[in-house]
Amino acid sequence: MTNHRIALIPGDGIGPEVLPAARRVLDRLGPRHGFSLSYTSYDDWSCERHLREGAMMPADGLDQLRDKDAILLGAVGHPGVPDHVSLWGLLIPIRRGFRQYVNLRPIRVFDGVESPVRGARPGEVDLVVVRENVEGEYSQSGGRLHSGSPEEMAVQEAVFTRTGVTRVLDYAFRLAARRGGRLTSATKSNGIVHTMPFWDELVAARAARFPGVDWDQEHIDALAAKFVLDPAGFDVVVASNLFGDILSDLAAAVAGSIGIAPAANLNPEREFPSMFEPVHGSAPDIAGQGVANPIGAIWSAALMLDHLGHPAAAKDVTDAIATVLAKTDVRTRDLGGTATTADFTETLLGLL
Ligand code: ATP
Ligand code: MG
């Protein structure tokens, strides 16, 4: 039986509430699908730790994770710690240090969930946003000039490399070829005149190698509008770091709640562990009440199983999520129900 070594980072707020739910689901599936999981939990890697010790994780944090097969993360964030500290103190070093250049965010409108968008009929919306995860607009390059004077300015440079763009496009086209055979590229080459035309050229070059994939490109402003007006019209959407960040949060809202949305930070070459985390943050407004929606964390665990070579187990999880939502009224508060995190998890386990 294959054993996978999993690093658990519960983090802050609702992270430590939703991660145990994901773990219970994983432990249920192992025996049936012929794998086992051993866990190492990094309970204090969090904003709380940052407040106490000035760092989210130890200096040798990445080395502690390096020999694991995957990382499952709850959430990091704290009202007393600025977002950029929690991002740059943990998430971004892991994403970049382990070359997790694909951020995969599947979106589905499940039967039984009410989308705020009228056109998003349950069962019809099933798309994946592939976001470039390590370069692009979120660079540290740039600076401030003429501080305090009327001429003061801030310059932020976006860095797009041929290697960095090509590898994420390659992943997205392969995924599109395996799924519905359709791909949309997010661009803005009418306004961003250096990086985005480069992105578009590389998309066209990659597309030539995937004749079976029907592709197009849309400017990000029009694309955002279409995500709301006709989300069922998309299959695989590939986007730069910033555009993908915005589109995937938008799509998660279309799906009915940010509490549902999962994410995978993938190192497709498997040189390093990949990291799986719900899209939502620490949700300090509901933390400690046991009412967080665990679907995002549980679905993220399913993405992890898929990555570890257990697609049938992953499908069991998403099927069970779909069944609870379609066939029962057990749902957490964000989806209009009264179930607790534990109630929902029990109901789901009952179907596995
Ligand atoms: P952070 O700073 O960690 O990103 P945040 O408050 O900015 O936290 P989220 O944690 O994503 O962002 O929360 C946004 C809103 O969505 C909050 O009102 C929160 O309660 C709600 N929310 C997020 N995740 C869940 C969940 N799993 N279940 C229920 N509600 C959620
Ligand atoms: Mg946030």
Automatic annotation (TrEMBL):
Q: Which domain of life is it from?
A: Bacteria
Leader sequence segment: none
Gene Ontology MF terms: D-malate dehydrogenase (decarboxylating) (NAD+) activity; magnesium ion binding; NAD binding
Q: Which InterPro entries match?
A: ICDH/IPMDH, IsoCit/isopropylmalate_DH_CS, IsoPropMal-DH-like_dom, TTC_DH
Q: Which reaction does it catalyse?
A: (R)-malate + NAD(+) = pyruvate + CO2 + NADH
Identify the keywords attached in UniProt to this record, alphabetized. Manganese, Metal-binding, NAD, Oxidoreductase
Under Enzyme Commission nomenclature, its number is 1.1.1.83
Q: Is NAD there in the keyword field? A: yes
The protein's required cofactor(s) are namely: Mg(2+); Mn(2+)
* Gene3D superfamilies the UniProt entry points to: Isopropylmalate Dehydrogenase
Domain Isopropylmalate dehydrogenase-like, which positions?
A: 5-348
What enzyme category does the UniProt record give?
Answer: oxidoreductase
Record NCBIfam families: TTC (TIGR02089)
What the record says about family reads: Belongs to the isocitrate and isopropylmalate dehydrogenases family.
The protein depicted here goes by the name D-malate dehydrogenase (decarboxylating)
